[in-house]
């Protein structure tokens, strides 16, 4: 007689999918019953939601994963607490002899996983971790001198010219279940959804969390939006981006699956569109590469020269920025889109971030924390790296003296004001000539459009030209100290 295989615990984190899941594939190969578990750890843990908006996403993503597992004859066990205590209890309850998971790459998460793996192995368990959240392993990809990459272009070339990612794995058609399931938390008891007020009321109009939603978004993008991507990606009023970032953030789709979907498209898609999109995938990789090698990316300036920068503390102006009440329509439209939909167009993210940092001289870290709480695609690497990029303090960053003019940015990328009118409806009747600068519109035109500056729509928090000069002067002060 052959010995019955013991159960394996499959620990889901930010890999909430059944396809191209290496840990799941290894659990199947292990041969015994599989016990899928998701552990809600302490607040602020990187394996869960990073903020309130992503908590909404996590709820629906776990619900979708649970349904998908049910179809395979399995189920998702939900547990709260520290992973070591939860896994110890599950091993005792189920007799499992192995624990598998997919790797995470944030510093705190990596340290916790290393310590946990050691403790579990000392207890006689088989413990294995697998790749899948990135196309590359940050510990292995190095420059010719043996160090980490600090500039994006050579990093892109290393990824583009390296080995092609392995073909994605298919989802299983069934999973072996244990004779008795351990106790599970009830998802609703985790209180992940907002209630009073329900500020996420419009989220479901835009998003479908879960692996199926991710695959649908990817297919729509490949079929309908990738063509013309290089130009269309900068127009916030168009649906011209992939909308995959929250799915990638929660691991509902792997970057290898996205990369694979862009193979063999050169006959139908212009090379510049295809290359531009792949570069965006690799930019995410670069952000994780930076975080891996600079663990304090969300707290400390990559370029220490910026440590001497004199930031301003202005609670009222910061609050006006968060509410989309700065008096600059393209900025306000972006901030209101963020609040209503949990997302903001990439071009507008740069404009709004630049405005906070350079027009208001408010520390980029305050903006990073706001985005972390309000974005459904909140990501520890991309969020921090992109804010530092705009601030000029990051790796391969935009120079600080590159100060976006919110008027010109609006006129260039939202020429008819369609984006502004969607999210700043109090300006929808204003002539497009002044939609991005209502403060310059004639009084009779404002009156006809029903706009009363300072009452129905705010006057600018700062004058652009004056703010620009003030920012350059502040930057000049730290340059003198170099």
From TrEMBL:
One of its GO terms (biological process) is photoreactive repair. It comes from the Bacteria. The record marks 311, 364, 387 as: Electron transfer via tryptophanyl radical. Binds 1 FAD per subunit. InterPro entries: Crypto/Photolyase_FAD-like_sf, Crypto/Photolyase_N_sf, Cryptochr/Photolyase_FAD-bd, Cryptochrome/DNA_photolyase_1, DNA_photolyase_1_CS_C, DNA_photolyase_N, Rossmann-like_a/b/a_fold. Its EC number is 4.1.99.3. Residues 6-135 form the Photolyase/cryptochrome alpha/beta domain. GO terms for molecular function: deoxyribodipyrimidine photo-lyase activity; DNA binding; FAD binding. Belongs to the DNA photolyase family. This is Deoxyribodipyrimidine photo-lyase. It comes from Rhizobium skierniewicense.
